[in-house]
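Case study.
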Amino acid sequence: MIYNLPFYAVIIIIAIGLYIIAFKRNLIKIAMGITIIQSGVNLFLITLGYRKDGLAPIFTHLPKDTPIPNGMVLPVPQALTLTSIVIGVAVLALILSFIIVLFREYGTLDTYKMRRLKE
Amino acid sequence: MIDTLLTHAPILIIAAPLLTAFILPLIDKVSTKGRNILALCAVVFTLILVVMLAQDVIENGIRIYTLGGENAHMALPSGYHVPVRITLVVDALSAFMVIISSLISFVGLLYSFAHVKGEGTGKFYTLFLLMLVGMLGMEMTGDLFNLFVFLEILSISSAALVAFYIRKGQPIEASIKFIIISSLAALFVLFATGLLYGEYNLLNMGALASEINSQTGGLTLVSQFAFILLLASFSLKAGSAPMHMWLPDTYGEAPGAISMFLVAGTQASLYALLRVIFTIYNTALDTSIIGGLLIILGLVSIFIGVTMALIQIDLKRLIGYAAVAEVGYILLAVGVGFFELAQGELSEYGLKALQGGIFHIFNDVLDIGLLFLVAGAIIYLTKETNLNKLGGLARSMKYSSFFFLIGLVAVAGLPPLNGFASKILIYEAIYKVSPLLSIIAILASIFMLAIFVKIFYSVFMGPQLPSLSNIPKTPLLMLTSMAILSGIMIFFGLFPDYIVDHLVTPAVNALVDNFTYITSITGGI
Amino acid sequence: MTLDTFGGYWSPLVWLLAFIVTFLIGYIIWGLGEKRHKTGEQLKPFISGLAEPSKKDVHIQGGNVYWGFTESLKEYYKYATKMHTGILNDYILWFIGIAAIFFLVIILPGVL
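After joint prediction, the assembly is written out as follows.
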């Protein structure tokens, strides 16, 4: 039961992130919400690879006669997570630079007032 | 030499623009003309390789290119073969989409040489080539995580290109909406990939397809949940109503030829949706429910796109709403095709509907692209986007009004151009499911004719306004790119059976028959 | 040269030939009419002797061309323009709502 705790945490984190994006009006808070959802998905990918009593997947550091591959945690989700973290940093940098220019032009950060392109 | 190029063609198609995109800022510091020539060389090289590869694939069947190995498998000591290598899979549908992307990039690059002026234009061409890399990668990849990475490359470079000119803050507003919605959709695609990896321990699309379609087990609750996330995310990125609202904002504020290139990018997301539905999850799903959902999405897109376009007064936003309606046609045809799928075979009218839908992808990009190019030329010369202030431009822009007339006839689906050829395939095939669908589709075509006649009358016809009396001539490169698109459209319209037999039918056969896809990856093991 | 649709055929070259023949017949009939046509003073519009207003005043603006049509569909357009608000949060709520509808339609019939 306690081994399922990271999966419950993933669901709670993604739900909090979706609530922030859908209901908060400030653009900086929406950017924070995107980052929270990214953290939740990264946590989900890492948790998929865990095996009970597994060791780090480095060949030369394993003690003798650990069964390969059952004695290690899975290395593939770790590679997926690294790529996802880097993409997340790039997207966040782009969103924040857009927010800076937007505040200089419009004078406000409220999404309810940022509606020149409506209908 | 030609044999080596053809063997390594899939990776060279992605690598050539990628390498050029990162060399361009260095060459820009030395000379501007050299940068333009290098970008043009990269795009022409990609186009030639794409045509050679497409010819080879359509004749000889599916091609798999494994990065860094002999075949896609790795044999464990127990004798079990598991497909773990990164693969690029090119079948007839991928070849079709790759032809579209590289052709549109060539035309867009020619147009941008005349349109983009000012400082900092070196970065424009870098982002342009990166967008091309994202599209080509999404259309040729063989596993799900690569799809996510190339989707993010496409989204980030598109968002940066839409916001390239800070006019009064409006492109920035459109771009921030685009990047937030895009990154949310891409995160859900990554979540679905994680779910599928946790369930089946596989990321390769062919191996996943063989696991999901196997007789024992197959579709579990987790994979159905992953399918819902993939369907919702990719149909958001493809611009289907009622999640379409970012599309007119983004297309309406992008500069010049970027609007046309964004249409090709949206079709790449539509291609990913087709891959997920038809190849990975073929008949394991309940075809009547999913087909019905796609038909309903298509109908709502057509209706909302066409009626909201009638009341717009901004020139490019109006064409953006018409683009939403065109995506609705494709979803309608594909929904009818999926509705009829049973064990890798289609009844005859399902096949015709899918042919019409896939042919309409190409026609949609050509028609809406030509309209965006003419609108870009009008805005570049008169600096006005409001329809209320434009009028009587046919005297000074003769050639542009002629190309707009060709685009109008094609988009409305009038004979003899290519819009009619694909639309008549769709009308006659969806009639069998329910006559109401055909009636709504034909009515929507009449609405589209009404919308574009409104623009043609109010922008080009009428007396010449005194405020627009001395505008310069259209640059020659812009007219050349419009002429290339018009020539292709007239050729497709006068010889549609040539295109349908040689390009579209192999694509439809590759889409429906996922057995060939699976056995060429797993090797029958 | 013909495209084979589900219900019949579509041949664009035959259509183009028929169009050109019909156009030629119409053009010849038009050319057999009156040939007197003056230029210059006779081309100006005649408004009972009043002065002709400037082109800017008689120009029908682009947004007003289909006034009758949009006026008769005002109920639908009032609802549709309220749906397209332009607020970012509403775009995301539509996405989550449609994903929830997909969930209800696809998964629940299988489970229940």
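Observations recorded in class. The beta strands of chain C are 3-4, 9-10. Chain C has five helices and two strands. We will return to this complex in the next lecture.
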